[in-house]
Every structure is written in C-alpha cells, then in structure tokens.
Amino acid sequence: MPESSEGYLSSIKQWCKRNLGFILLFFYVLILCVAGPLSIKELVRHHAERHVVVWFVAGVFVYVTIPITVAGIVQHTKNFSDPPQQKRLIRIMMMVPVYSFFSYLGMILKDKVIYLDSLRECYESYVIYNFMMFLVTFMYEHYNVEQLLTYKPAQPQLWPFQRLPPWPRGKSFVIWAKRGVFVYVIAKPLTTFLTLVFTLAGKSGKGEISLGSVWFWTLIVDNFSQAWALYCLVIFYKALKYELAPLKPLPKFLCVKAVVFFSFWQGFFLELLVLFKIIKDSKDPDGYSAEDVASTAQNMLICIEMFGFSIAHIFVFSHKPYETDDDLPPTQFFSTLSDVFDIRDVGNDIRAQFNEFSRFRSRRLNALGMSVREMRDRSSGRAPGDGERMPLLFHPGSTSEHVELETIKDYTSNHSSENVS
Question: What is the predicted pLDDT for the residue at 108?
Fold first, then answer.
C-alpha cells in the first residue's frame, strides 16, 4: 500500500511538471474571473467616468496578455536544453509583460508616468541587444564564424548607401555589427536619463521642434542610434542568411521591430496631435491635461497591442526547437529566471567592445605613425631609423607590443637593404 501511494504521488508530480504552464494559466484565469466583477463594480461606483472605462479595458488586455507570455516562458524553462540561446529568448519574450505592466501602471499613476515610461524605453534597447546576441550565440555554437566570414564575399552596403565601401570580412565584421547595436544600448539609457532630468526641471521642451529643445535632440539621437542598430542587424542577417536559416530569424526580427516601431511612432504621432492642439484638455472633472490624455492613449494602445504580440511570441519564439529526447536535469523555474535576470553579461560585452576599440585605435595610430615617418624619411633621402628612433605609438607592456616591435624591425631592415642596393 505505501508503495502504491508513493507511485501515485510520483505520477502526480510528473503530471504537474509537464503541465505547469497550464496550471499557472488556470489560476490566472481564476484571478481574472474574480477581478472582472470587482472592476465592473468599480465602474458602476464611479458612474463610468471616461478614464475608469479606459483603465478597465486596458486591464482586461493586460490580465489576458501576461499569462500567455508566462506560459511560453515556462515551456522554455522546462526544455532548457540550450541555456545561452534560451536565456536571450526569454529576455525578448519578457518585453510583452514589461510593456503591458508598465503601461498599465502609467495609466493609473499618471503623476509617475515619466518614471515608468523611462524604464519601459530602456528595456527596448535591452531587447535589441539580446536579439543580436541570440544570433551571435547561435553562430558561434555551430560555426567558426571568423573563418567563415573570411571566405565569404564582402557584404555590400544596403540602400541607399551602396556607393560606400563594403563591410570588412572576418572577425571585424562581427565586431562592427555588435558595435552598432551597442551604440543604441548605451545611447538609449543616456537620452532617457537626460529627458527625465530636464522634464522634472520643466525644461525638456517636449513636443517642440526647435534647436533649443532637449526633447528634439534626444529624439534625433534615439532615431539615429536605433536606425543604426537595426541596420547592423539586417547586415548581419544578410551576410549569414544561409547559416541562420534554422533559427528562422526574420519573423523573430519583425516581432521585435514591430513592438519598437508601434511604441515609438504612435507616441510621436500623439505628441504631434498635442502640439497642434488636436488633442485638448479633458473636460471631465478628472484633471487630465492634453499631455495626460495623449500619454493615457499611448499606454492603452500598448496594452492592446501587447495582447497580439503575446500570441505571436508563442509561435515565433517557440520552445519546440529545444525539445530533446535526452533526459535533461530538472530545471527550477525561479533558478532559471535568476540566470535570465543576471545582466552581468551586458557589462562584460560592453567592456569587451571598449577594449577591442582601444586595440583597434592603437593599431591605426601605429600604422599612421609609420606612414608619416616613411614619407618624412623619403623626402629627406634616408632610410627609416637613420639618426633617430622610430616612434612607438603603443603603450609599453600592452599585449600587442611584441608584434609591433617585430613589424618595425622588419620594416626598418627591408628599407635599409633597399637603400644600400
């Protein structure tokens, strides 16, 4: 009898593990069934004031959206066969609940909306970074990327920059593609912080298209850095289209791009409506200014749109490619999320990019110094190194010191033999 009860409990545990996502979804729907009548009661009590109706409609979409995304994330944690890739996928999928939750809070806490919008916009750049690293991780797991890109033809520029030189090959291609995304990762939080500071000081000039408006300049920087990041993503995809085909990256890219596109441009359009006084102050006794009305409309639209994106993410960022017949070690949902929330990899990647840029600048300075020295020596009719030392532009003790010294020695000996002959 004890053995049969233990087997019965074991089967229940196995069933719960297999259907954890559906169990969470059931309880969430149960909460919705309780929250729905309470919301209706609140509508009746407030005599259906306009802003309360908006809260209710947006809340329904948020309550339906979040469990759909959570169910998809849970499926990934249950089939966590490729942590480096799936960690980035989960971060991308969390864009939907983050946008929904902060937009809904921004509607209710209108006095705090500037802080909530700032957090939401910073997550946008974080998603684009993770999508780029998702592609890079897949490539490095399956290919020798530097060697592959060395033998591929140089990737030409896209329209309208076809006349510019093509992208470099080999390792430099990956470095420049990642660097383009990192520009946005760094620029977006900085511009968001500046906008926040100047808005709190009442000097942001929001909605003003003039050279003295901080809002106008941050808008330009945001657009340029975002466009450059997306351009680098497209270049990376074009160059490695065949190798990336198993990932089906195009629908994934369109999902990410659509969220960014809708959230930014509809907000910009609403701000223009306020600027041209098409959206006016609310006549209800709720104290909503024209800016509050536009902000509430933006947040409501995001709540509705995220419901559609949550359904799209279930199919586009599916866990099925990561299912395996092998027995995986049991994965704890919250331990996996702790790995997802660990953002030290972002700091390490940014630090690596700065180090790589520093090495690149050192090599260019050395090449420039040698070229200038060569021209000066030829004009004076002597070989490099005659009479004075060749200037070393690298820092002593750097990793490239030995290579640079050997290069200069070879360069000097070759030119000296030419002059002697």
Answer: 84
Max Cα–Cα distance, the chain, nearest Å: 102
The structure tokens listed for 354 are: 């700065």
Phi/psi of residue 18, nearest 5 degrees: -70, -30
The owner of tokens 């520093």 is 358
Length of the chain: 421
Q: pLDDT for 375-407, tens place per residue?
A: 666 666 555 555 444 444 444 444 443 443 444
> Tell me: the pLDDT tens digits for 55-104?
888 888 888 888 888 888 888 888 888 888 999 999 999 999 999 999 88
8-17 confidence digits (pLDDT tens): 677 776 666 6
Residues 6 or more apart whose CB falls under 8 angstroms from that of 264 comprise 222, 226
Q: Is the CB of residue 80 less than 8 Å from the CB of residue 70?
A: no
> What is the Rg, in whole angstroms, of the alpha carbon atoms belonging to the chain?
28
- Distance between CA atoms of residues 292 and 288, nearest Å: 5
Give per-residue pLDDT as tens, 345-356. 877 877 777 777
**Other Cβ atoms closer than 10 A to 219:** 18
Distances (CA, A) of 363 to 60, 172, 394, 414: 58, 13, 8, 21
CB atoms within 10 A of CB 114: 16
Q: State the pLDDT at residue 412.
A: 43
* Inter-CA distances, 360 with 365, 372, 410, Å: 9, 18, 21
Name the average pLDDT for the chain: 77
- Helices 290-316/50-78 angle, 10° precision: 30
Average pLDDT over residues 237-248: 91
CB-CB neighbours of 28 under 10 Å: 17
Task: Decide: 221 and 165 in contact? Cβ < 8 Å.
Answer: no
Q: How far apart are CA 250 and CA 300, in angstroms?
A: 28
Count of C-beta atoms within a 10 Å radius of residue 148: 16
Q: Which pair of tokens denotes residue 357?
A: 């840029």
CB 230 within 8 A of CB 257: yes
